[in-house]
Automatic annotation (TrEMBL):
Claim: Hydrolase is one of the keywords in the record: no
Keyword check for Acyltransferase: no
Cited InterPro entries: ForMFR_H4MPT_ForTrfase_C, ForMFR_H4MPT_ForTrfase_fd-like, ForMFR_H4MPT_ForTrfase_N
Source taxonomy: Bacteria, Pseudomonadati, Planctomycetota, Planctomycetia, Gemmatales
Residues covered by the Formylmethanofuran: tetrahydromethanopterin formyltransferase Ftr N-terminal domain: 5-152
Alphabetized Gene3D superfamilies for the sequence: 3.30.70.520
Keywords on record: Transferase
Pfam families the record matches: FTR, FTR_C
Gene Ontology terms: biological process: one-carbon metabolic process
Taxonomic superkingdom: Bacteria
Coiled-coil zones: none
Domain Formylmethanofuran: tetrahydromethanopterin formyltransferase Ftr C-terminal: from-to ranges: 155-302
Descriptive protein name: Formylmethanofuran--tetrahydromethanopterin N-formyltransferase
Length: 308
């Protein structure tokens, strides 16, 4: 029997994000660059950004999308909350650190811009990373792109000069209430895989799944988020805890979906629900929200309620 779908919504909040296109000789080295540059970027609670794979492009990836150098590539997104102070500078810093330390260093890679960079919303990522060349770097035009070329021990690293950034959304989510731990995890795994097939979204947590969903705030002043005690199965029945878990639920898993806009995240949400609702030992699918206190973009689980 399919799991129940709660009549609720996930509460997404505004972000700014940049997308970079990484290319490499083969899938092995491309995946190494993706894994490295998106590492330790699951949650803006304590990370410098939220990052994840958007999609593979070029040969062996999206057949409708080519890459500048004709090789296999991947689009990676970096998001920071719009409510952060100096958000543009923090986004640039996150991209600078991650591309310079994890893409430049990865064998056979090159790096190109994805978002429009001809207005005001761009940063000179290529120029700053090119300083690694110690004066031997130079400007060039490759593949119809204005790039910086950095001599390195293995040959050269090519990176586009400007990288654009744009408004996006963070915090789309689904919760999977399992009758067993395996039921919750299997459902979340299926959901994450399905959501990831929607071009334009990224799922920043390990494997796309967050095992420790949180609430805003904490009893400790130094912490901005903490465990959602009312949904922790092992706290059911503890004095002072008013459990919100449905009867029979023993485990909860969550997925988080970031992307460029509400329609894209809504499509990924519906793909995730369709792929997971028939999972054995899954009791219910729900979502986390704070009544509009965190964000004003609502992703409804019942698609007929989604505006537009």
């Amino acid at each position: 029997m399919p799991a129940l779908i709660d009549d609720t919504y996930a509460e997404a909040f505004r972000s700014i994000y940049t997308s970079v296109l990484i290319t490499a000789r083969d899938r092995y080295w491309l995946d190494r660059a993706i894994d490295a540059c998106t590492g330790n970027a699951s949650s803006s609670i304590l990370c410098d950004c939220e990052a994840g794979l958007d999609r593979y492009v070029g040969p062996g990836g999206d057949a409708d999308t080519t890459t500048p150098d004709g090789r296999l590539g991947a689009v990676v997104q970096f998001h920071v909350p719009r409510f952060w102070k100096e958000r543009a500078q923090k986004l640039e810093r996150a991209a600078l650190v991650r591309v310079s330390q994890n893409v430049l260093t990865c064998p056979t890679t090159a790096c190109f811009n994805v978002l429009p960079a001809d207005g005001e919303n761009w940063f000179p990522l290529g120029r700053k990373i090119a300083y690694f060349g110690d004066g031997h770097q130079y400007k060039d035009e490759r593949f119809g792109r204005r790039v910086r070329v950095v001599p390195i021990l293995s040959g050269e690293f090519v990176i586009e000069r400007r990288f654009g950034w744009a408004d996006g959304l963070m915090g789309g989510n689904l919760w999977f209430f399992g009758e067993t731990a395996d039921g919750a995890l299997d459902a979340a795994t299926r959901a994450a895989a399905a959501a990831a097939t929607v071009a334009g979204v990224c799922l920043p947590f390990p494997g796309g799944v967050a095992s420790s969903g949180s609430k805003a705030g904490s009893k400790y002043k130094f912490a901005i988020a903490s465990t959602f005690a009312e949904y922790c199965p092992t706290l059911r029945g503890k004095e002072g805890i008013q459990s919100r878990l449905p009867e029979g639920v023993t485990s909860v898993q969550e997925i988080i979906i970031n992307g460029p806009d509400l329609p894209t995240i809504a499509r990924a949400t519906q793909a995730a629900i369709a792929a997971s609702r028939d999972t054995p030992e899954l009791a219910r699918i729900s979502a986390g929200n704070y009544g509009g206190r965190l964000g004003k973009s609502f992703v409804y689980l019942h698609p007929e309620k989604q505006p537009g």
